[in-house]
Amino acid sequence: MSSLTMLTGKDLYSVFIAGAKRLIQERAMLNSINVFPVPDGDTGTNMGYLMQTIVLEAKPYETVSETMESIANAAINGSRGNSGIIFSEYINGVFERLKGKVEVSVHDFSEAVSNGVRRAYQAMIVPVEGTILTVLRKAFEVPNLQSFHEFFADSLKRAKIALADTPNELKVLKDKGVVDAGAAGFTAFLEGIHHYFETGSVEETIQANEDVVLQLDTHDLTFEERYCTEGLILEPKKTIAELKELFQNEGSSLIVSGHSGRMRLHIHTDRPDRFFLKLKNVGTIVEQKVDDMKRQVDALQAHAKVAVVTDSIADIPSNLQDDLQVHLIPVNLLVDGVNYLDKVTLSSDTFYEILKDAKSVSSAAPSVKAIERSLDFLNDHYDDILVISVASKLSGTFNTFVQAAKNRPKVKVFDSRQNSGAQGILVYEASKMAKKGDSIDQIIARLDDLANRTKIFVSLDTLKYMIRQGRISKIKGLAAKVLNMKPIISLAKDGSGMIQDKAFSLKGTEKKILGLLAKRKLLSYAVVHAGAEERAIALGKQIESKFGMAPEYVSTISPIVAMNAGIGAVAVAAIFESWED
Length: 581
Fold this sequence. Notes:
Mean pLDDT: 89
Shape: elongated
């Protein structure tokens, strides 16, 4: 390999795969030194995901152009986080110069990587030195060499020197005593390529030791905006420059990467819902990703040994989620063909406005890849991971969690057999146990008992939405409308839906709910609602007056639940001393 002076498409594929597999090996280490731009401990996870996507999706072709296009498209699909998207844009810049080429010389490739560096810098509103950008640039300030072996050997040497110097260019790195994580990832990529030219073989990816939990010294960790937000769009209506101008005031760390057919935008913002409502007007959104950086920082600092994870159908107030460090995985919500992330890129208030005029609304479980990515991050920082899922009888989300948990021994998935506030109150109880230091087995045993004694009673203002979603037949719905019937919806012990009772007015349903709560000894309860806060608070006060206990919380319900229950619905989730249907 040492004398190779021309690269074919298949050679180029091997080069990239060699670099990708080497970087994947360093995922945990990169997470442990991640302090810039936000110390959220996921640079390795993000860059590893990018490389894994290239390994899985890119294909070798005879020509350099076709191979590089395959790699570039995979890179856009797999790019995550600041460093991942910068790396992706560098790859797109390389493809831009290699387009149409059958084979490539060292000189041609050198020009292509220089173009990649230029594109990487241009992707950012404010490029910062001392990061992956600096190492990209300095690594390829290579003299005119004859063979690819010499080219990459010299690039690796320069990258290592630049990497070691990153603390001198970025104060936060020097203060923490680390080099830049993104820059270290790119250097690892070059090490894999150098190994390939030295030996002619690609290193096999070494699985990280699952028992190793890397912990970063995380005092004084701060960030300006809470959510690391990314969207992938097809057929964008604006150029990269126009998109940067359009979104520059929506947050910080804005990066736009891609080409005329496919672009990925990255931004740190407090309002991912507003960002995506704006983004849908400039292209077809095909992917959304939002990381809660506060929760990621929680994972890096002192915390319980058990991570409690749930899907967005569990209704529990955000302040309690923050206090108890509940990790949320959003379910997909499709509105008129646009896919949103429940509670994250589509808030309840925004959803109620859209719901009034929406022609089609449906839901889908989170993707296995999205769940795996979240679990892999948590795996690096917790002893055990407990996933509390919406009832398997109501959603395919439970089965998706189970699939994602395969080959991840730290992860256990619990079927709550509940939804909405009832699922939320179980998550609340589990999180308190985790915070207290109980083991995952103790928490699961307690949850299994509580789930059998937990009920939810939902008072609907209208059956329109349940009819539209097929939860109630049109014939039954028409009969109920004629009779002005207001059903009280609940769940059976296996988690399937059922009509618990009925009345002929909302006041009547509230009286029936009070009667249902009095059937057994009430231990605790929560009240949740769909845009009916005053009614929910008033019902909570009635319950408190009758039973002498305040609700654990009053909360809005998720857009996913509101899709079926409809605007105006109010529900009480209760844990009893015992319950038999």
